[in-house]
Amino acid sequence: MKTILITGANKGIGFETAKQLAQQNNFVYLGSRDKENGLEAVKKLNEQGITNVEALEIDVSDIASVRQAKRELEGKIDALDILINNAGIAGEQPQDFAGGDIENLRKIFDTNFFGAIQTTQELLPLLRKSPNAHIINVSSEVGSISLRLDAGRNTNRDKYNAYGSSKTALNGFTVMLANELYASGITVNSVTPGYTATDLNQFQGAKTPEEGAKPIVKLAMETDRNITAKFFNDGGEVAW
Ligand SMILES: NC(=O)c1ccc[n+]([C@@H]2O[C@H](COP(=O)([O-])OP(=O)(O)OC[C@H]3O[C@@H](n4cnc5c(N)ncnc54)[C@H](OP(=O)(O)O)[C@@H]3O)[C@@H](O)[C@H]2O)c1
Which helix (H) or strand (E) segment is 125 a member of? Predict the structure, then answer.
């Protein structure tokens, strides 16, 4: 049984990831920036007979909230096995770089990039106490520079430019942190759920949250310790 924290797990892909990981007998803390929404999500799982879950209030863009969540976790567990940095926002439209609002870009980075970093930094001492810790950053294909250069892909490029660049930065964080932590044995990887119907895209995505959660769950349950500094989707590795 692994102890897992998933940020932004009160709904969407994070919620489904929590459900599937709890069903595989792990203990899952469902991170939620709104306490009531977190408790509601846990209640939903409890009603389905899933009791190895607990809500944890954490707003990843607010360092005081991240530190409070850390203190709360330290009072409950000795070690954290898996941190899934899932919390994310798409931001406002339009978000092309030629004319998009710079404050929108900052807000997106605050959650998707700086949020993941400060959450990881604060929880690293608990992760270091696990013999086999994983850090998983939930990224996106629209953050892949290689796919962006492929003119045949990503027809919605302008629509997700600010969001996509925050995921490119997150992927950079994945690789550089993986290298920093290599000697410690902590693995760090990126994974994308694929285009999934959630609030983030007004439920336009092609996959269900159940399907979107699958590559994240697979990576979380990976036992090969040599897998680090990589980027996955449900088909295998994604080009950076
Ligand atoms: N859906 C897709 O097609 C798709 C594709 C690729 C990658 N992703 C990534 O998958 C992850 C989950 O997204 P989703 O599609 O499941 O979207 P979602 O349904 O909108 O869920 C996003 C979650 O993140 C939380 N969140 C936002 N800002 C936060 C903050 N500052 N602190 C803590 N939690 C915060 C939200 O909380 P509230 O309920 O309080 O807003 C919510 O729980 C994101 O990282 C997203 O970029 C999604």
Answer: helix 116-128
Rounded CA separation 84/220 (Å): 8
Domain ranges of the chain: 3-237
Strands 187-191 and 53-57: unpaired
DSSP one-letter code for 135: E
Side-chain half-sphere exposure of 100, counting CA atoms within 13 A: 21
pLDDT at 153: 54
Which CATH code is given to the segment(s) 3-237? 3.40.50.720
Res 157: pLDDT: 60
160-201: pLDDT as tens digits: 899 999 999 999 999 999 999 999 999 999 999 999 999 999
Query: Given a cut of 80, is residue 156 above it in pLDDT?
Result: no
The residue ranges of DSSP E strands in 151-222, in sequence order, are: 187-191
Query: Which distant-in-sequence residues (6+ apart) come within 8 Å of 102 by Cβ?
Result: none
Measured from CB, residues less than 6 Å from any atom of ligand 1 are 7-8, 10-14, 33-34, 37, 59-61, 86-89, 111, 115, 138, 140, 192-193, 195-196, 198-201, 205
Residue 103 CB contacts under 8 Å (≥ 6 apart), including other chains = none
Question: Which residues partner with 28 through β-bridges?
Answer: 4, 53
